[in-house]
């Protein structure tokens, strides 16, 4: 079935979006979902139609949000112009590459995010923590997908490392080339559901997408043997229809995901440290050599790890710096 043959419900339309459309708008506007973002245009699909539109909303100011992949729009009666972006359920964003003062929207209206990592030397707990912080910040359920299990004799060591990040975190191990293994992911890919893939280049996202879709339409590349690092293959942010009826956002690999406004997500992912910090003697404790530091006491007792402490402090420092930059920009 082509995406243009879908109903609004099959595209992900629900009461959240329906409630934002007035009776007058419903009489002449057409809802459409952003399926892909290209330079200079967006590809949209509505009930029984599809087309390309300008990414600029009629009457919007330069500071207004423009559509990103996964967004729902209202278009004009002739379906030639986007009129407004409907309120989002959630929005993934990051600090813009090369411009720490700006932000870049990644995707909107996601139901589940698959955090993809490979079982080789490119595996990184710190990177997974960053992705998880991003998911927690916007309130989207996360599932960790460990790929390339054929490259290791001990996949359980990778599973244990992931589960140490957060109790109860769902982890699936798959060989992305095996339809039977990938079928376990179908539970999150039902009709109208949207799943986003986050992971650095070369972890096997495109291979997983191809297997879930039952096609090889997305290019894949082999990893470099000397360091296990993959080459970037996804160049366009777009949605793919899955055989299970859902939609998948295959996003460009982001090896260095610079978080933006993620204080709540950091606090949730590192709740063991944030809870311990509440018991410090001083409210402004830097967790260095201060007396009565509950965080240092936890590390000394072995209930908290110094490695995780270092990653927590790095994310906290980055968030503090980003907040300061944002405040200076707004004051100007």
Automatic annotation (TrEMBL):
GO terms for cellular component: cytoplasm
EngC GTPase domain: residues covered: 108-255
Enzyme Commission no: 3.6.1.-
Annotated protein name in UniProt: Small ribosomal subunit biogenesis GTPase RsgA
Record carries keyword Zinc: yes
Functional note: One of several proteins that assist in the late maturation steps of the functional core of the 30S ribosomal subunit. Helps release RbfA from mature subunits. May play a role in the assembly of ribosomal proteins into the subunit. Circularly permuted GTPase that catalyzes slow GTP hydrolysis, GTPase activity is stimulated by the 30S ribosomal subunit.
Localization in the cell: Cytoplasm
Cofactor binding note of this UniProt entry: Binds 1 zinc ion per subunit.
PROSITE patterns: ENGC_GTPASE, G_CP
Record-linked PANTHER family: SMALL RIBOSOMAL SUBUNIT BIOGENESIS GTPASE RSGA (PTHR32120)
Annotated InterPro entries: G_CP_dom (IPR030378), P-loop_NTPase (IPR027417), Ribosome_biogen_GTPase_RsgA (IPR004881), RsgA_GTPase_dom (IPR010914)
Keyword flag Magnesium: no
Coiled-coil region list: none
Residues reported to bind GTP: 147-150, 199-207
Keywords of this entry: Cytoplasm, GTP-binding, Hydrolase, Metal-binding, Nucleotide-binding, Ribosome biogenesis, RNA-binding, rRNA-binding, Zinc
């Amino acid at each position: 079935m082509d995406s243009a043959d879908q109903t609004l419900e099959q595209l992900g339309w629900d009461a959240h979006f329906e409630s934002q459309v007035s009776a007058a708008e419903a009489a002449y506007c057409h809802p459409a979902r952003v399926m892909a973002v290209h330079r200079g245009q967006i590809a949209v699909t509505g009930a029984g139609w599809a087309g390309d539109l300008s990414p600029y909303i009629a009457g919007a100011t330069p500071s207004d949000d423009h559509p990103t992949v996964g967004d729902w729009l209202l278009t004009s009666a002739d379906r030639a112009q986007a009129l407004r972006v409907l309120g989002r359920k959630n929005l993934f964003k990051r600090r813009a590459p090369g411009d720490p003062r700006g932000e870049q929207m990644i995707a909107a209206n996601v139901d589940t995010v698959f955090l993809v990592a490979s079982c080789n030397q490119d595996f990184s707990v710190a990177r997974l923590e960053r992705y998880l912080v991003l998911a927690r910040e916007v309130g989207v359920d996360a599932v960790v997908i460990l790929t390339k299990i054929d490259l290791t004799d001990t996949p359980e060591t990778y599973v244990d490392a992931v589960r140490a990040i957060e109790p109860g975190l769902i982890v699936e191990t798959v060989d992305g080339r095996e339809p039977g293994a990938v079928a376990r992911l179908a539970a999150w890919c039902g009709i109208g559901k949207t799943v986003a893939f986050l992971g650095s280049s070369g972890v096997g996202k495109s291979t997983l997408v191809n297997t879930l879709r039952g096609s090889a339409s997305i290019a894949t590349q082999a990893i470099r043997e000397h360091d296990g690092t993959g080459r970037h293959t996804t160049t366009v942010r777009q949605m793919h229809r899955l055989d299970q009826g859902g939609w998948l956002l295959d996003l460009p690999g982001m090896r260095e995901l610079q978080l933006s406004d993620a204080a709540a997500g950091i606090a949730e992912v590192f709740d063991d440290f944030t809870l311990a910090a509440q018991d410090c003697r001083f409210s402004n404790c830097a967790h260095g050599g201060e007396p009565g530091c509950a965080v240092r006491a936890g590390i000394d007792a072995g209930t908290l790890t110094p490695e995780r402490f270092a990653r927590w402090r790095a994310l906290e420092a980055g968030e503090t710096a980003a907040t300061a930059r944002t405040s200076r920009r707004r004051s100007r």
